[in-house]
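Hey, I was hoping to borrow your eyes for a little while. For a while now I've been wondering how a particular protein folds. The fold is given in discrete form, as structure tokens running alongside the sequence. Could you read through the record and tell me how the tokens relate to the sequence? Take your time with it, there's no hurry, and the full record follows here:
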Amino acid sequence: MNLLRLKNTRHSNFFAGINLLSRKIFWMIAFLFFSAIVSLLLWMSASSIAQGGTTFSGRLIDTEGNPIPHITIYIRRYEGPNQDRSKEPDDSLQTRTDAKGRFDFSGIVYDSLQLDISGTSKIGYQINVLSVEFGEITLYPDRGWHWSSVKFALEPAVRMENVIITADIRIRPKIRTRVVYADGTPLANTEIYVYRETNPFWGNNRGSGQLIERTDAEGYFVEYLYTVTDQPERYITLAVEHQGLFAKAIPFVYEGSVDLVLTLNGNPKPLTEPLLERSERFSALAAYLEPLPVWVVNPVNGHVYKKTRSQTIKEAMAQATAEGGYLVAINDESEETWLQHVFGNGKFWIGLSDAKKEGQWQWHSGEPVNYTNWGTYEPEGGNSEDRDYVRTKHFGWGWETTTAGIFETPENPQNRSTHLERAILEKVVMPLRTPSDQN
């Protein structure tokens, strides 16, 4: 009995030792695990403060204080005016304003910021940011053609709240165009190439648009035009192409929305040759868009002008006379600038000539020569018996003397070359009358 009791006691002490060791190991592991969890939480908290602690929130409103909803706002890293974002990953943040114009950014990881709003971020509308208010501090944006941007810096982990962005929002003018085949069938549910040129009457914001649009079931597509605040009306030319068929609109001036119907110069037919590449199709559209010979009114002097194409300047003079006008007489710099904006850069015959008497220049209209814009070495350096006429080099590059336009070889009349120049015609449709004229 004693021996048995002794054996049981030894076994009991052995298992008790094991249990004590296990408890120590358990508590040690638990302590280490708990420490790791605490460290992880502290690290995550520190990381959150470092990386996502900066917030930026507020409202986007119009000039009347009304909210502007559903507008996308971007915040990007700003590293100075020479920053090249094309070589960097896109780390921008974006959010949309809610029904009350509110926006909220979090997780901003950079201190120098650029806030951007696209002027076309709402279909059919144009948005220009006027100011960004940070409490008592107001910043004013840099406005590009399609974007408003504000640059600023924030301290890390700051909460910037109640920022007020005020913007001008207006309905964008639009061109609604229906495209039909020659037989009147609408060009429905298909892609169409569109080339548009926009020429301001004043200023230098001349441009062109190359677009691929998709028509609806009735053959319509809509283009929204971008304008600048208080910008004067613009002169628009527009052409479309589909599988080798073309159509263009008569040039027009827009001040609001416009509805057009363009009729293609043919009907659908099976393709026998591969279509041109995209760039070639746009180039063909630009060539096809050569403006129709229509008269355009200059609002300053009341005269009308038309661009035409003739093989010789004498043909252009004859055409001008037949239509009751004359080759253009440019009387001052503002008139020349207007002509450039309406008809574009290019070489044009104008009505200045010394064909009657060498060295004595006069306008085709008979007006006195009070303004000239000769290019370098003109007219002395290039004047001669056969260079009796004048053309623009390109508007802005001065004028130059030239021949009548055609050179013929007496031995072979068919061997002749031509400048294929364009000319600008001018006429007075309704002379202005003073009160004394009416008496």
